[in-house]
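in:
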């Protein structure tokens, strides 16, 4: 695999991981708010 393609693939994977982590945090906040009754 050419180096440029490897770098692009690594950046793409990092962005996907960042998005996934953000979704997890949002889910935790929504659940916590539901459990505590806070808005």
């Amino acid at each position: 695999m050419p180096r440029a393609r490897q770098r692009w693939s690594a950046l793409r994977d990092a962005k996907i991981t960042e998005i996934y982590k953000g979704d997890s945090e949002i889910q935790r906040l929504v659940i916590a708010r539901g459990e505590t009754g806070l808005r």
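note: The chain has a mean pLDDT of 87.
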